[in-house]
Amino acid sequence: MTELPRRTAARTARLASLPIGMAGRVVGGWGKRLAGQSASDVSADVSAKTAEQLFAVLGQLKGGAMKFGQALSVFEAAVPDEMAAPYREALTKLQTAAPPMTAATTHRVLAEQLGRSWRERFDEFDDEPAASASIGQVHKAVWHDGREVAVKVQYPGADEALMSDLRQLSRFSRLFQALVPGAEVKPLLAELTARMSEELDYRAEADSERAFAKAYDGDEHVLVPKVVASAPKVMVTEWVDGTPLAAIIRDGDIDTRNRAGKLLSEFHFSTPARVGLLHADPHPGNFMLLPDGRLCVIDFGAVARLPQGLPSPLGAMTRLALDGHSAELMRLMRDEGFVRPGTEVHEEDVLAYLAPFTEPVANDTFHFTRRWMQKQAERVGDLRGKDFRTGRSLNLPPQYLLIHRVTMGSTGILCQLDAEFGVREIVQRWQPGFADPD
């Protein structure tokens, strides 16, 4: 492979094969049920084949399609248990593997970005990629000063492919919504599209990573690799070895799961106050646990700029919902634009809708489980339930959209980790507006 498939017709055809293939499997499933197979067996079989095709196509296309798949991956914990296994396997593959560029293509990009004498900057350069990302791949190398480094090289044509993918995926948003019940797919796609121009410029990513690395330099809990060099389509950072969260999710012991979960939660809540930025790409491939117990965080292409820290109304709403103050909660939500203008909704119903989401901070410790996240997804997604009708009256203001997605994504990872720890203490420390009443 020399570059991303850029021809719109070819990429559209691959994406269009997804709903066709899924529809065919559903029809085939009806036939099997008529022939006497149980509904659960047919459902599991259809889910496995659908997951396999969905993420195979997304991974093959890379670009925006793979980016979308990675964003969906954190919602795997919301998928019902009987469907989760094939999704889990396919999502893990998507996060860690994609067809690589040829060495010749990689060298061409390096020459364009770092100059014709790019090899002189390295003592060693491994042509075999060590990892793949949604818009680039990573090579291990040795910098001219002897440091081991990670070299991220952007796929040629990533910019065109990215936008083409996201336009096409938007057409199928309802289909993906049905497959992943915990995700708000349409706004997720809109938000991803809006941020793609930032992710395509590795210089902007390097600036963000430098800010995080400076803030966490010497931190006993978090490591952010230092940036060594950057160009628009190539970025060089210090190399770090660790255990990916995907591996801990798969077979980590209880203590390791709990530690990883606590460190991830602390990082999520603390960065707006410490850096003025929020790491906005939460999926397991971007986090590792180091041998010394620290959390290593990589990939800063997507960030939310929060120079004033996390908005205090979020903390206040969480506190009011936790304490059952429905009238005050309703007033604050209307003031902040969380209730659609002109809609009639009862404050008790809004409290009932939001209160279960505050369970993690209701006690000193909380056990994040897939079942808990499934219950929340089922509760707000049940078309016949009151919570679904209440949810349709609520609105997510644009300034809160990215914060909400990152919080949901981080919570999804915590549920995949099956982590139990004191999240209340973390929120108490870092979320303005939440503090315990005197």
Written overview of the protein:
The structure is a single chain. The protein has 438 residues and is α+β, with helices and mostly antiparallel strands. The protein folds into 3 domains: 8-97 and 171-180, no CATH class; 103-154 and 201-238, Phosphorylase Kinase, domain 1 (2-Layer Sandwich); 243-438, no CATH class. Helices cover 57% and strands 12% of the residues. The chain is built from 18 helices and 14 strands. It has helices at 8-34, 39-61, 63-73, 81-96, 103-114, 158-171, 173-179, 185-200, 202-215, 245-251, 254-275, 312-323, 326-336, 347-354, 370-381, 386-393, 398-417, 423-430, and strands at 122-125, 131-132, 136-143, 148-154, 222-223, 227-231, 234-238, 243-244, 277-279, 287-289, 295-297, 303-305, 366-367, 420-421. The strands form 4 sheets. Strands 1, 2, 3, 4, 6 and 7 form a 6-stranded antiparallel sheet that branches. Strands 5-11-10-8 form a 4-stranded mixed sheet. Helix 6 runs antiparallel to helix 8 (185-200). It is globular, with a radius of gyration of 22 Å. The N and C termini lie far apart (63 Å). The model is unreliable at 18-47, 59-64 and 179-183 (pLDDT under 50). Belongs to the protein kinase superfamily. ADCK protein kinase family. InterPro entries: ABC1_dom, ADCK3_dom, Atypical_kinase_ADCK, Kinase-like_dom_sf. This is Putative unusual protein kinase regulating ubiquinone biosynthesis (AarF/ABC1/UbiB family). Pfam families: ABC1. Residues 93-308 form the ABC1 atypical kinase-like domain.
